Amino acid sequence: MRTPLPRSRPRALARLLAALTLAASGLGSAALGAAAPAAALGDGPTPNTGAAPHTNTAPHTSAAPAGSPALGNGLALTPPMGWNSWNTLGTGVTQEQVVQTIDFMAANGLVQAGYDTVTIDDGWSENHRDGQTTDLVKNSYGAMQLYDAGGNPVSGTDGTGIDPTSGHLIPHPGRFPSRTVNGQPVNGIQYLSWYAHSKGMKFGLYATDTYTTCQGHPGSLGHESTDAADFVAWGVDFVKYDDCPYGPPITGPDGHNYGTQGEGRELTRSIYARVRDFQRALDAASAAQGRPRVAVSVSAQPVHTGLPYLLAGDDPARTDPVVVAAGNPPYEAPGYAPTGVWCGQVANLCRIGGDRGPDLEGVLYSGQLRTALQYPGNVRPGSWNDMDMMFAGWQDPYGLWGTTDTCPCHKPMTPTESRSEMSVLAMAASPLISGADFRTPENSRHTQDGYTWSTGITPEQLAVYKNADVVAVDQDSLARPATLVGAPPANSTAPLVLKRPLANGDTAVLLVNQDPAAARTVSTTLADLGLTGPGYSAKELWTGSTGNVTGALTASVEPHGVAMYRLKPLPVTIPATVVGDGRYHGLGAGGTGGLALEVQGTCSAPDGSALDVNTWWWWHTSEKWTFTPNPDGTVRITNDCDTPTQRHGTLTGPNSPGGAAWALNGWDPNSPHQKWRVEQNTATGALTITNVATGLVLDSPQTAATSPVVLSRPNGAAAGQSWSLLN
Q1: Which of 126, 408, 165, 152 is nearest to 265 (CA)?
Q2: Which of 264, 286, 440, 519 is 20 to 30 A away from residue 460, measured at CA?
């Protein structure tokens, strides 16, 4: 997330302790028609019980079984897609703005394109839980003030300290007012969940594994059961789980300066463990309430190393086989390794780098792409490397770019750069979660210094998100991310090439021009891509242009641009092996379930009868054909009939597409209508039978028995033009 906003000043301890005597108000744990469950993990009170506030007094000590498996919760089987409020709306996000976003996404094809999740980021809750009447007390470092058992403030840098807060998170009443749905009162977050679901969408919400969120609101550390039960009851489908430990710099007993690491339990439980605690609390709440499981997204790449000397001996990261196999560098505690090592063990997706801005460099090789390439093993159905929220189509909400705001840090991406950002993320199998303003120009209007402008996404930028070919690469079910072709780029402006294998055998290739100032020619070859076929059809996914590639793949790419291709092996054909073998064969029409080419009416049919497809009987001579080579290199195809009316009839083609093929007893060596080219696909064995006179192809366009066989224009996608040997 962005740099935290300024924190509130610490409040007096006496005021805090007075607030602790209040009971929880029981806000909003009941969902529409569902009661909240008892607590399962963490130290918060059971929702809506009216119990006295519980004070957290000891580190969490649940032990993980050795060799704990990957998460495998059946969620996020392809990279999640959707929208997040942070990049455009920040902590000022409101219920009205989210409703406007949901409406826009549903009305403008984004939901249909796969962007089905809308998530509210940090800032949605009050600055205290409902067990207090005043906001969180902070120390001089912006961290929550912790206390000893006697109520005295402590630094918590030795891993101890009591979190005095209790109760439930409270949606900000001014920005997320309560509503009535179906005659029932619901809080402002429940309402948005219901509204998203009513539009066929999912709803996501922000929380943290620390005492406070990045913007100083109550975090979920120590309150896992309470918050998870509330989230599930509110209908949350997706949780963005952040990590923001505040506190003083810490120098360990080994003399090493560990920097800011947090306080209290943040020092004794690894990020891995804290995420797992919340994920398991969500699962427990879902089971207790009979509701679907909730996907978890870790929003923080560890920027610190953890304190090995304070990490609890039973921390589950110590025994996780993936973490153990990765090892720990000096000064690094288990569970603080990059999330690309362990994410899929406890969460469905994890940030693999720091916060990105609207500059394209953040996703190029000098940015997060290099990190993504280091952790391909973390990418699989249910586990994804997250390269942060997209800036494609984002417009500067802090001012009118170029007029009231000229900070380079706020410069929006060009449409070219937006296409490049999406292409890189799709190749990496990264989640496609936008931070652009998905609202109408009217709803996204701003006024400043006498200027009025809209931050709403433009039609051109919206089309970037809706490119179905690029989305299909991102969502490919093989779930194998791209690899770098050739050596790493020599510098930050040198071009690079990525390749990604796809589930149907195709290969996605991305040619990237990292130079922001000049066009570059970017090139690769089939050999460099590891493709051994003699040729491939190529579709450029942004322009739609097509062609064939037999050696080099080259494009002139504009500054900060890409060329993205989907390569499909061209059918490899040879003269059919059945030609000249002297045998009679049944020919099955593709797409018919094995129906055979026959003389309509069998061998008792008259001379010149049309052909159809029918059930294959190996003893029916009307369904058996031989392929005799002609001196000119063409083929004569005749049936096995030997009756007064059908005497080894010759396959003959009509003059125009759609005309019936028929069998003639007479053979005219000078008639091209009785001559054929028969080619065989070496990969599938299928035959293509082409008439010499017209170039039309033998086709069974209908799939039912007794359907006519005709000649049609060649179409590689037409199943009926593909014939297989039945004997």
Answers
A1: 165
A2: 519
